[in-house]
Amino acid sequence: MFEPKGMKHADRQATSAAAKKALLERFKPKPTVTDPNIEARKAAEAAELEKVRAERNAEREAKRAVAAEAERLRIEDEAITQEARDLDLRAKQKEARDLRYAARKQKRK
User: Fold this and answer.
1) What pTM does this model have?
2) If DSSP codes are grouped into helix, strand and coil, which group holds residue 36?
3) For residue 57, what are the CA distances in angstroms to 43, 47, 53, 88?
C-alpha cells in the first residue's frame, strides 16, 4: 500500500485523534471571565426594569381611567337622549289622545 510522505498507520491514527480532540474542544464551554461589578449591574437593571414597569402600569391606569370616564359620559349622554325621546313620544301620544278626545266631543255636539 502506498503511504504518502512516509506516514505509518499509527501516525494517521494519531493525526485523526488529534483532529477529533480539536473538534471537540471547539464545542466545550469556554471559561468565562466574571465581572466584579456584576451584582451592581444586575441590581441596576432590575431597578430600571421596575421603573419601566411602574411607568407602563401608570400609563395603563391612566388609559383605563380615561376610558372609564368616556364610557360613563357615553352612558349618561345615552340616558339623556333616551329620556328626551321618551318625553317626545309622550308628548306626541298626548297630542294624539287629545285630538281623539276633541274629535269625540265634536261628534257629540
Assistant:
1) 0.47
2) coil
3) 21, 15, 6, 46
Interacting residues of 35 by C-beta distance below 8 A, sequence separation 6+? 41
Q: What are phi and psi of 16, to 5 degrees?
A: -65, -45
Instruction: Summarize the chain as % helix, strand, coil (round to 5).
Output: 85, 0, 15
| Nearest of 100, 106, 89, 19 to residue 11 by alpha carbon | 19
Dihedral sign, CA of 100, 102, 105, 109?
negative
Residue 2, SS3 per DSSP = coil
7: CB partners within 8 A, 6+ apart: 15
Residue 37 is given by DSSP the state T
The amino acid occupying position 75 is I
28: DSSP letter: S
pLDDT, tens digit (0-9, with 9 covering 90-100), for 56-104? 999 999 999 999 999 999 999 999 999 999 999 999 999 999 999 999 8
